[in-house]
Amino acid sequence: MEFLVDFKVNIPTGASESEVKDREKSEASATAKLADEGHLVRLWRRTVTSGDRPIVGLFRADSETELDSMIRALPLYEWLDVSVTPLKSHCNDPADATVPRRPEPRRSTSLPDPRLTKV
Question: What are phi and psi of 43, to 5 degrees?
Answer without folding.
Answer: -145, 130
